[in-house]
Every structure is written in structure tokens, then in C-alpha cells.
User: Which sequence fits this backbone?
């Protein structure tokens, strides 16, 4: 047997055995690689359309912007691969809160593949007018309308969830009331918008789909973190999204989509207008103002011991910390999530605290990790826990500084998110941990740095 053919068959067998049940982006990319290997000579657009055909994924909305699948290739693939592709592309929500058609990415995000692939196909076909409807508009409008009719049992958009296992994800379960535009659908839509815009303006004709997806979703930052990373990677999706999206166009298309809904009475129409306006502003706040916040369930937090006390919002103070231990900055989601679990275990089991002490923790992977979060009183700054948030940077910054991107995430994105969300006073004061107690935290070098930040105060009342 020709060794090339033997290698291809081996690749298919390995994929069929190892990756037909796990839902990680690397598994989907491996499926695409195996399909490309036995379907040589196909352009990226051919593979994208062929995947959609194999998954049986076609609606009137899709046909309006992308045409039908009559000219799509019938991709050659093992039945196990075809079955896997169909499962991970087709999106659905069960009554028990299970969300299908979602994969976990290396950066810790949960991505619905359908809107990502539709945006990519729109860009490859140069039908850029379909980018907004296919990636974001349709799902947001559908979710807002559904919420108007089911306000007690749904949220307007953005429901997050958690996996049964971070290392071997198979089942993704929503952790709050459902929406028809879940966080995974929105993240998939944002990625589809970014990638579709990229391929519509750049020459990607000679590039394979698997290569594009690997470069976007599989980048692992080195010690320099995101500061030295390429532009087009998933860790920078919010930055790239803000650069290329027109929020005014997105909103006008949503308003236009709502005008064709004629089966609403006057009170429902008024309520829908309110939900849409409020929801759109919140959408911009969550996905364009705030940093990407990894929830407790996403990083695998243990339960709070006892009952938490609640903050009175907005709080007037923000305290900056470093963890000291772990002393090494984390640059990947897996590493940062592991550090979070380690710190929580130490705080609960060794210190005897109810939970991890910090309100939020900044990783050098581009994510902000939820500790006690927006509402719970922390254990970060003795005497001021009920008056402020404590944000810690993973690492020891006695003689070095965190990378610029993670400092900017807290200095600008987190504070804007907290103030605009009514959680941190617009006239807040910023301090280093050492100003409240006898400690070297947040490290000599870092403390000198934060003295140049907006709202830093030398005097702590």
C-alpha cells in the first residue's frame, strides 16, 4: 500500500477512535484535516460548503445570502467523521439546558460552529452583506422576540455554561436561564464576522480551512503573552471585533428585522422595542466594553463554603494585588484555570476562608477570571473587603511587570466595564494592597507602575 494512502487511512482511524465524542476545537480541526486529506485539491470555500452539506445545515435565511447547496461537493469521509461533523455543526438547545453544536477552544471560549462557518462562507463568497445577519443579527433578534414572550423563563441573550470536563469536554450545560442567543452563539458569530471579514479582503485562496482555523484557535502565547502574539487569533477577538464592526449598522439591521414581525400586538411591539434597545446596549457593554470574563463554573471552581455576604454597589475602591504564588504568569486557559483552582483550594483549605479571596484575577492569556465576582464580599484587603473590589494579577511582580496587554485589560477594560455597569463608582479610587496592610503586594515594580494609573490615590482613608 502506498505510504501516503496508509498515512491518510491511519489519520482517519485515529480520529474516529479518539475524537468522535469530545467537543474541543482541536477535535473539529482534526476532523477537517482528515476530510481535506482524502479530498485533495478543494479550495477553502469548497470544504466549508461541503461541511455544511454533510451536516444538512440549510435554512431559508442561509439560502437568501449564500445560495443553495446544489453546487456543493459531496465530501469523501469516514461515516464516523461525517457523523461527528453533523453533530458539532448543528446547534440546538434541550429542555434540560444542554447546548449542542458548541466546542471548547484553547483560549477558554465556547464557540458555536454554525455562525462561525456561515460568516466564513459569506466572506469567501464575497457576500459581505450577509455577514451581520448570518453571524449575529438573526440570532439576537430571535432571542429578543423569544424573551418578550417568555420573560420569566429566559434572558435576552448571552447565557453561559460549563463543560462536564475541561480536559475532555463532551457535554455543555447552560448555567443560567436560557436564551436563543447564548454566549456560545454570540462568540461563534463574532468569530464568523472576524474571519469572514478577513477572507473577504485578503488572499486566502491557497490556504486550507484547517490551517486558517489552527492559526486562529490554536495559538499558544509564549512568556511574552499576547504582547508578542499575531493579530488574528481568538485571544484577540474582542479587540478585532471592535475594530471592524459597525454597531450602528448592526443595530439598524436589527431594527429592520423587527419591522417585518407583524404578529405582535401593540403592547408586545412596545415591549420588544424596549428589550431590543436595552439588550443592544447591554450586548455592546458585555462584548465590546468588558474583558472576557471566565466564570467560576468555566474554570471549575469549588462551591462557596457557607453563605456569601453581598456588596452594596457601586463600591468606591479598587485594590490591585499580585498572587506572588503562583509566581509564574499563566499564558493559557488551561494553566490559568489550574492556577485558579489551586489558589481557591489554598484559600479554603489552608487559610480557612469561605472561597478564593479575590474578586477577579487577571491571567496573561487575555482572560479575566471570576473569583468572588461582582456581588460577593471578598477576602482580599483587610478592612476594605466590603468597600471595594480586589483584582489580582497571576505572578510575582516584585522585580518585573505584568505584560502590557494584561495591565491594559484591568486598567482600561475592567474599570470601564465596572463603572458602566454600575458596580464601581465613577469617582472610584485605586490603591495597591500594601496601602491597606503590612505587605509587599502587589510587588515593588508593579506598585510603582500603578501609581501612574488613573484614579490612583496616595492616601487611603
Assistant:
Amino acid at each position: 500500500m502506498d505510504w501516503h494512502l496508509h498515512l491518510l487511512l491511519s489519520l482517519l482511524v485515529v480520529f474516529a477512535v479518539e475524537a468522535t465524542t469530545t467537543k474541543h476545537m482541536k477535535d473539529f480541526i482534526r476532523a477537517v484535516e482528515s476530510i481535506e486529506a482524502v479530498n485533495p485539491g478543494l479550495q477553502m470555500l469548497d470544504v466549508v460548503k461541503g461541511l455544511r452539506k454533510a451536516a444538512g445545515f440549510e435554512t431559508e435565511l442561509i439560502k437568501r445570502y449564500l445560495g443553495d447547496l446544489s453546487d456543493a461537493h459531496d465530501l469523501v469521509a469516514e461515516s464516523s467523521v461525517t457523523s461527528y461533523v453533523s453533530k458539532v455543526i448543528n446547534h440546538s438547545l434541550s429542555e434540560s439546558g444542554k447546548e449542542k453544536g458548541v466546542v471548547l477552544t484553547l483560549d477558554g471560549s465556547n464557540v458555536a460552529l454554525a455562525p462561525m462557518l456561515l460568516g466564513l462562507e459569506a466572506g469567501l463568497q464575497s457576500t459581505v452583506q450577509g455577514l451581520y445577519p448570518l453571524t449575529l443579527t438573526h440570532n439576537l433578534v430571535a432571542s429578543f422576540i423569544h424573551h418578550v414572550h417568555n420573560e420569566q423563563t429566559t434572558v435576552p441573550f448571552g447565557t453561559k455554561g460549563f463543560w462536564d470536563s475541561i480536559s475532555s469536554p463532551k457535554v455543555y450545560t447552560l448555567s443560567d436561564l436560557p436564551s436563543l442567543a447564548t454566549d456560545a452563539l454570540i462568540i461563534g458569530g463574532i468569530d464568523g464576522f472576524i474571519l469572514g471579514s478577513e477572507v473577504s479582503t485578503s488572499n486566502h485562496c491557497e490556504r486550507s480551512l484547517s490551517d486558517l482555523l489552527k492559526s486562529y484557535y490554536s495559538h499558544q502565547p509564549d512568556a511574552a503573552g499576547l504582547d508578542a502574539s499575531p493579530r488574528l487569533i481568538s485571544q484577540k477577538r474582542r479587540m478585532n471585533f471592535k475594530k471592524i464592526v459597525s454597531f450602528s449598522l448592526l443595530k439598524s439591521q436589527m431594527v429592520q428585522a423587527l419591522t417585518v414581525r407583524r404578529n405582535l400586538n401593540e403592547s408586545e411591539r412596545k415591549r420588544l422595542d424596549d428589550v431590543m434597545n436595552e439588550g443592544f446596549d447591554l450586548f455592546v457593554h458585555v462584548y465590546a466594553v468588558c474583558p472576557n470574563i471566565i466564570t467560576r463554573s468555566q474554570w471549575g471552581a469549588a462551591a462557596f463554603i457557607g453563605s456569601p455576604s453581598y456588596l452594596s454597589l457601586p463600591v468606591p475602591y479598587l485594590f490591585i494585588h499580585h498572587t506572588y504564588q503562583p509566581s509564574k504568569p499563566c499564558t493559557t486557559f488551561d494553566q490559568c484555570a489550574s492556577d485558579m483552582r489551586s489558589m481557591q483550594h489554598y484559600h479554603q483549605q489552608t487559610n480557612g476562608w469561605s472561597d478564593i479571596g479575590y474578586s477577579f484575577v487577571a491571567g496573561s492569556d487575555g482572560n479575566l477570571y471570576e473569583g468572588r465576582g461582582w456581588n460577593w464580599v471578598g477576602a482580599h484587603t483587610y478592612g476594605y473587603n466590603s468597600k471595594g473590589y480586589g483584582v489580582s494579577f497571576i505572578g510575582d511582580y516584585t522585580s518585573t511587570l505584568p505584560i502590557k496587554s494584561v495591565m491594559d485589560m484591568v486598567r482600561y477594560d475592567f474599570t470601564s466595564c465596572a463603572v458602566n455597569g454600575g458596580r464601581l463608582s465613577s469617582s472610584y479610587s485605586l490603591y495597591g494592597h500594601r496601602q491597606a496592610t503590612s505587605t509587599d503586594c502587589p510587588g515593588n515594580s508593579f506598585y510603582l507602575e500603578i501609581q501612574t494609573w488613573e484614579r490612583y490615590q496616595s492616601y487611603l482613608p
Observations:
- Residues 266-289 form the longest helix (24 residues).
